[in-house]
Amino acid sequence: MLFRTTLLALTTVLLLPSPAFADPTADELLKKYDAVMGPENFLATIQMTAHRDDGTTRTYKMTVLKKGSEKFRLGFAEPAAVRGQEMLRQGDNLWVYMPNLKRAVRLANRDSFQGGDFNNADVLRVNYQADYTAKVVVDPTRADAWQLELHAKTKDAAYDMIKLWMRKSDSQPVKGEYYTASGKMLRMAEFTEFKVYSGLMRPGKISMKNMLATQRYSTMSWDSMDTHVDPPSGKFVLDDLGK
Amino acid sequence: MRFFALTLACLSLAAPALAQEAVAPADSATPDSAAPDVAAPAEEAPPEPLVKVHVTGFLDSRVTGAYASVAHLLPSDDVAHLANLTEGNVQLKLDWGTRATALADASFIYQKAGLYFGNDGTGQRLQLADHDVVAYRPSAVLSEFYGTYNFADHFNVTLGKKRIVWGPGLAINPTDLLNPPKDPTDPTMQRAGSWMARLEAPFDLFTLSFVAAGKVTRQFGGVPSGLVYYPDAHPAPTYDQYGNVQPDGYDNRPHYALAARAYALWQETDLDLYWFQTQQYNDAFNYKNRLGFSASHVFFNALELHLEAIGFQGSSKAYFDPACIGSASAFQTCGMAGKTPGGYTQIDDPGVRVKALAGGRWQFGDNASFTFEYFYNGEGYNSTEFNNFAQVMSLRPQLLSLMDTLASAHVSLPGNALSLLSPTTSADTGSPQKYTFEPLRRHYAFFTYLHTMIADDWNINAVVLLGLEDLSGQIAPQLTWLTREWLNLTLGGLYTIPGVKSLGAQVADARYTENAMQPTVWRVFLSARVFY
Asked: Minimal Cα–Cα distance from B353 to chain A, Å?
């Protein structure tokens, strides 16, 4: 009797949907994405290469400084033609400092980033928890990854809708698709070359394919990333640009 | 069996914890993590050096072909129809940690110009001999040369020469009283700032700035030898009733600008309040206080709207008595009779005047933007005043000759009238400009279209400046080929829009619109710029 009761209990537990084996929630995955792609504070050196229709490339080297979820500052080091150009994001505000004008001008987030296939927000606004609502959807073609469907909840979000895949083994992002409100796919990203930076594992490279001009794509590689910095807040004010 | 039941119970209780662990903490990963394609740890950034040195710059060579009319109001004698400008620029920046920064931006400019044409006196075009023109001389321009020290996160001091532009206007900035003027058809041409000291307290959402700037009264090779005061002012200069120094152009007064500015980021809007006091700095005003305001905000994530305005009493423009400007002799007769033929007669006028720029920039999704700006110049001439000004300009050659005659006879006219023809300005005009915007009238519009990456490596932009009272203006298209990451080739032009002549000033039997007063009809240039 005892054996039968125990067997019944075991069977019941194994067959019923149990919290012990539940998938993470969409919010948990989104939080993980933000933590991986936009740690609280960091100083990184990044290289972006734009591959164009004719097979030629343009490479930009830059440093990115981040403090909290709202403050980004980016400065271009290469090529010489854009050296000294800077971008600053503070909350929903974005400015670009043009060294040949000796001044900063306001930008919208949706602008293409240096003519590549990323846009400004891809680089300077990694805060999906603030910008999107998310739900987990089933992708029968990928058993190894969770799929998230993100919908913009603020006007400053870079895209109207994003599909994001995060692998189940360690919740690292592996793929993203970026859409307009009408459902047209604008870009597709692949996250690869996972590395550990200051104890943080994350993709070391993102390849962004332009779905409107399919011969074009851009890659962004993280040469270094220090997550232990504590930059002064004075580095993230408009009047500090160009200094 | 109890063991199994206990185990199942434990599993059930532990379920929420396991669900949490399914999303691995971001900082828990190690190189040994079981991720299938984890690479080796990325290299840490090397330690920062004590002093970081950044050197950049460019070498630019620009060939310009132009056509100047000999029938316009202003003479074409000094307009070269063929010119080459070669500029070598170096920008050196030194960073000592996060506390101190020093920067120098210097250009060395060599120019060669020729092919001049003038009026032979009968209205016919006559080629003139190549001659020395100040604007085409080789020069050195020290655009910036300053050091900044951050005493604390929220307080820094800057000393030296620096270009500070606070207002959001693109083509022009009515609140910019400190710097040499920029070319609205190509604002990138002007990088020069002013010699000044700045105290600044920047915070997250607001900044307080105070600037004291001195006018360059004399300089050699881009290096000032006179600042604030003229180095060799006459011991006892005389002033007329309007406070203007007499025609020698020198005085012993200080020439400075003071500026205080409060910036706030409020509701995602850049807001600035300004106070200025200038003393014969970049205009004729004496100890003039001015108040300004600007705002900039992005709407619909694509449309930036901005407003920039400054208000003040009086006018720094020269005004002329129509009874005295019919001819050079009438001018002289008025002066000798003690009547002011012309001068800064409204400089102390209590009436408030406003200069304001309102505009918007629409950013398209394909790297393109279109900017429209309207400029109201509150001290611009009305039709009658503009007519008087044009009349005096038509007499300019005779009046300059008269000036020499009177100077040799030690005679001066009241109102500083003749010195208006050769006004004393800052010795530092900054970089050579393709076009100088000196608004005489009241209403202007600027249209700027910029499209980067119109095709891989190709940018286009076009600027249209339009005087709304006579519809004369300038159109400046430009095509840039980013040949290599280090080489840009630019083909550009400048065409004078003649406007509607019937709306222009009448001088004798002819009518002249504002922008068609100057002789250049069109200009085409090809520029090659190598970056390093």
From this structure: 27
| Inter-chain CB proximity A225 and B270 less than 8 Å | no
Chain B segment 266-285 residues within 8 A of A by beta carbon are 268, 270
Q: Take residue B116 and report the two structure tokens written for it.
A: 């001049």
How many residues would you count in chain B?
Answer: 532
Q: B40 and A6 in contact by Cβ < 8 A?
A: no
Q: A30 to chain B nearest CA, in Å? A: 10
Residue B467's CATH number: 2.40.160.10
**Nearest to B428, CA basis, from B171, B157, B144:** B144
A21-44 pLDDT, tens digit each: 567 899 999 999 999 998 999 999
Q: Please tell me what DSSP assigns to residue A22.
A: P
**Residue in chain A lying closest to B456 (CA):** A52
Q: Rounded to a whole number, what is the distance in Å from the CA of B506 to chain A's nearest CA? A: 39
- pTM score: 0.85
Whether the CB of B8 is below 8 Å from some CB of chain A: the reply is: yes
- Collect all residues with Cβ–Cβ distance below 8 Å to B289 and sequence separation of at least 6: B275, B276, B277, B312
ipTM for this prediction: 0.83
Choose the weakest-confidence range: B45-49, B194-198, B450-454.
B45-49
Cα–Cα nearest to A199, from A220, A222, A228: A228
Q: In this structure, are residues A92 and B499 in contact, taking their beta carbons and an 8 Å threshold? A: no
* Distance separating the N- and C-terminal Cα atoms of chain B: 79
Inside any domain, residue B22: no
Of A5, A80, A108, the CB nearest to B532: A80
Domain spanning A35-240: CATH superfamily: Lipoprotein localisation LolA/LolB/LppX (2.50.20.10)
Q: What is the DSSP string of B75-101?
A: --TT--SEEEEEEEEEEEEEEETTTEE
